[in-house]
Amino acid sequence: MSAPGTGKGGPRLAVVGNPENRRVRLFTEAVRAAGLPAPRVVAWRDVLRDGGAEFGADETVRLDSPGEDAGVDRALRGVGGPTRVEGSARWYGRFTAAVRSLRGGVRLDDPGELAVLFDKRRCHQLLDRAGVPVPDSPTSGPAAPVRGWDDVRALMAAPGMRRVFVKLAHGSSASGVLALETAGGGRIRATTSVELSPDGVLHNSLRLRRYTGEREIAAIVDALAPDGLHVERWLPKGSLHGRTADLRVVVVGGRATHAVVRTSRSPLTNLHLGGSRGDLSAAVEAAGGQWARALETCERAAACFPGTLCVGVDLLPAVGWRRFAVGEVNAFGDLLPGLLGLPGSGAEGQDTYGAQVAAVRDGWPGARQHRQHHRSRNAHEAA
Fold first, then answer.
1. Is 272 exposed, middle or buried (0-12, 13-18, 19+ CB in 10 A)?
2. pLDDT digits (tens, 9 = 90+) for 61-94
3. Are 319 and 237 in contact, with CB atoms under 8 Å apart?
4. pLDDT digits (tens, 9 = 90+) for 103-131
5. What sign results for the dihedral spanned by CA atoms 328, 332, 335, 341?
6. What is the dihedral of CA 341, 66, 169, 91, to 10 degrees?
7. In whole angstroms, how large is the CA radius of gyration of the chain?
8. Positive or negative, the Cα torsion across 284, 288, 292, 295?
9. Among 51, 43, 66, which residue's Cα sits nearest to residue 103?
10. Count of CB atoms within 10 A of residue 380's CB?
């Protein structure tokens, strides 16, 4: 008998995404390269317009990012202009509702897990409880909400919190992130991609800015707070060739398959904000015998989301590259065009999309569902 979502010729695939987007194109190319029929593409704009979509019991369904489409973004966030920062809480509510409106099919992205992945506070708590190393955070889980700048200032007065990252709870791509640091005399500095316009509207910029006036910083935080904020301790990170470094590690089917080093002269290493791809071999050398531990940490983070085929883990190396912490786990963190699999990962010669198609052909999630059914049956019999 075939696994759910597969047939004699292999899985029948569908993808929910923005049809013109490169993510959908790259996934489609990987499916065709595997000798499978092109996936059926269901547009997010149609899901939002029609109040859902139906999938056949024999369809294996991948969800992809709704980003990089102005119309979809406007429908989700409810604000005009793709550079606007506000509206992330509304985006979260509407996006998770859209995911729940999808009916049928075998899912590669568990709806409940997506809801956690897109809430940094809940995600942090889940990782922490699982023993995955994460930065200290006073907003982990259902903590008291951060109402504005006065609350952030009070949190930063706690021991070890003089340097923090303030993040939108439902943000992505560093939208609304501020790297805050205090100095003597109450001085404070913020590094961020947020541009504060004269009329008080916040915009994302591709150029990092540094604010040193507390009034401006307070205005930004107060404007972001209604969408929900997450505060984390700013961990000193390792470096490569004089630049701050971290890693994006893609985990497919529970195994770390791809990794890229991101380096920057600023606290934010995102490639679209001026960060650069670093030398992975240099990172492996710097980690030495701890490299396997670094990958295992990412796999432990991914294991917190067993119903999701693929996640991108942002891994923070400590100074000296001997300890690691997980900064974030990204549901749509696999957009790394041209990057091939790590040696020994089982994904050698495959990009991130090819590795996911191979995992589905090998029985994921059918094998996972079978194991879950087996465990459930055993538990029932034991009871």
1. exposed
2. 999 999 999 999 999 999 878 889 999 999 999 9
3. yes
4. 999 999 999 999 999 999 999 999 999 99
5. positive
6. -170
7. 21
8. negative
9. 51
10. 8
